């Protein structure tokens, strides 16, 4: 019942000079709107008093028209809901909107309806491993552990106290208070060298990648991407008209020497050094220095996506590339959505000082910023220490889940799978030693409520590994053994 | 005090096998972080218990290190706030981050640091008429009239009841319930022919324009834009590498015949037919039919931005272009931010059925959707009738403000200004008969807290009119006469 808009004034043209009487004009307008499907069954209509006021006419012709519409069964009166469009109209009478649309979509089209570059994107994403919830789904967090009470209290407080300033468009870079806390967090936790002036709040890492690509890259530029690598980053560079240069990833991360061999003059490199997506390795210190050296010598940019750096379970923390870069060649990207919850849609990009104006101008043409309230709430959530506390709790939880998953994989599948990468993040990747068809297995798995993201689809060239990316963020320890047994049966069944 | 992140673990590498004792490693790590500016004065540090747990060491070395840091004045204890970085550190001791940054930003750069296409955008928007609040600011609403109580109640209710589904990424097109209510609203209020399946929720009309351009246009395509027209739409088409074809606007709206003369084969037209920005005219019925006819014959697209269609103060409502288009050539764009409040960041685009997949794929590469909670709240806000009620109240208020402004302009300035456009929207445009330098006047006005958006800057070619766009959404009736007197003095002073 909530899915229709209540009390909306339909488009009624009233002409006082027309020979047709007013009540008839009103009657005709409603009848047409109902027959054509602009008004739908059960939709509430304005009260006669409100309609008369809206149209600037006396109530009499409105009462007259409504009376006739009620009498003929177009309207009905509902106790407590006022007057609504009748729910009992015969089907053939109310041209169903869907049928109308079907007819319309058949109309002749000029050739080449959409942009050429847009056709470079994969069609609507329907891969079963990216749909909905389920064991091993990637990018999901332990929702039941979120401190919802603290969060809602902050949301309610900020919402009640909204004023002209918070209703209005905000700062081009995002809320100042949030940028200050994020800068402080990044300096402390990730060794970034940054000030609040360099932080731009964005809707998540995807927007940050899009924005960086638009500021840094022209069509025809070449970009190093990790092989295997993150599909939505590749989609961004491809739609900018850039050429992707796949650079292999080994146990030390991106193979910089190989990248230089393949295309030294690339304009940018996109990397996930903390926890490579999808293989999960951490880029070694020497590779980091090589990459920075290449960028500096070559005048290239590094886009560092530090998407789940909050969760490392090994002893030695590794400072970000941005933190050891002396030459401001790194654009640093992070997300809050992966730490708190995805529908939050907040992330940030740390911009080299000389590029700030370009980022602002480009962002402003893309959208006019993120909603204000979540920025205010998040600033307090970080500032009051809840953020750090939540990360500490989740680090313990995810470490346990990861250990349980690794133990289960070893027990059930033994040497059939190799667990890859470092102890970090909210997913791990397994390599199938028998090189079974991971896509086919993943498709079959979805009917068993298992979300297996095949490794092979993350390669641009031929996949040198087959396997799965297994998320454990929202998979409870108790569920893990059963889910791994299902996985084993699926792999054995091929 | 809130502007620093609380309780964050700094990057501390602990090496049990090193000859350096643990307490000294911890002491050195903190001291370095403070000297280098990663930790800043007044920032709260972890409790000794929490740090020991994080590092996996006993509490003794931590206590030892903290004791020394306190004794040497790096830390201080604050009642109620635990241990914080000392606020009394000598300036020269803590390398100020700003100074560090300045040094870093001076490092040598490779030539041509940013993308060529990005340089087509205007530099960071600093025009005084677009900054902050003040009389006549455009795009601002009557914040004090917003039903904040109803709204916060809905926000609080939805926030408290968040669950796995609402925490997670949503539907690619936006929340289903919201799309249903928006479709129902548009069918009724704007005569659109649309179903919820065609509605995509976006962050506002700017994102909708960006998205449409990416789906429909390739570099080198020509696009009709209104002359004068909306600067942020032009920015979008320019950064896509499109050529802008300015088509003059007269009292009937876009001059279609002139557009055909200038460049018949344009791939798309961007129009604001309900309330042309900035002149305020409403496109006549015959021009609407001409435009649709041109699009159909020519295989071109029409992007209809209906940004403030909710507010018409004249008798005859005009159905949208989308509603009278039989051939699915119209992309319809609308915004909620202009009706409720700008920092809401919600709008929608109504997509022709055959293009839905393209829009979804393109959007998914740009950002992964809008935050969930405001979508849920808005669906209820519309469904429960608050939206329609708010629009009705605001229509009365804005009509009064507009009348008061027109009366004041006539009284104070008489024939010196011509009030243009139809009775609609939240701003009107005046044409200065003496063709004074509107940009210079606007710059001087800003120091008097008057936000005058000069008309001439909205032209791509030579401005055939000088004047101002005057917003009255957030300018109370009582303020209007005084603001108009200021305006008169500024105009006379030139």
Walk me through what this model shows:
The structure is a homodimer of 494-residue chains. The first copy, chain A, is α/β, with parallel strands linked by helices. Chain A has three domains: 1-110, Orthogonal Bundle (Arc Repressor Mutant, subunit A), CATH 1.10.10.10; 128-141 and 390-492, Aspartate Aminotransferase, domain 1; 168-384, Type I PLP-dependent aspartate aminotransferase-like (Major domain) (Aspartate Aminotransferase, domain 2), CATH 3.40.640. Chain A is built from 17 helices and 14 strands. In chain A, the strands form three sheets. Chain A has an eight-stranded mixed β-sheet, with helices on both faces. In chain A, strands 11-12-14-13 form a four-stranded antiparallel β-sheet, with helices on one face. In chain A, strands 1-2 form a two-stranded antiparallel ribbon. Chain A starts with 21 loop residues before the first helix and ends with a helix. Mean pLDDT of chain A is 88; it is low at 92-111. At the A-B interface, α4, α5, α6, α7 and α8 of A face α4, α5, α6, α7 and α8 of B.
Principal-axis shape of chain A:
globular
Share of residues in strands of chain A: 5-15%
Give me the secondary-structure category of chain A: alpha/beta
CATH class of the largest domain in chain A: Alpha Beta
Report the strand count of chain A.
14
Query: What is the share of helical residues of chain A?
Result: 25-40%
Examine the secondary-structure arrangement and name the CATH architecture of the largest domain in chain A. 3-Layer(aba) Sandwich
| Main beta sheet strand tally, sense and closure of chain A | 8 strands, mixed
Task: Name the CATH homologous superfamily of the largest domain in chain A.
Answer: Type I PLP-dependent aspartate aminotransferase-like (Major domain)
Low-confidence stretches of chain A: 92-111
The strand line-up of the biggest sheet of chain A is: 3-10-9-8-7-4-5-6
Number of domains of chain A: 3
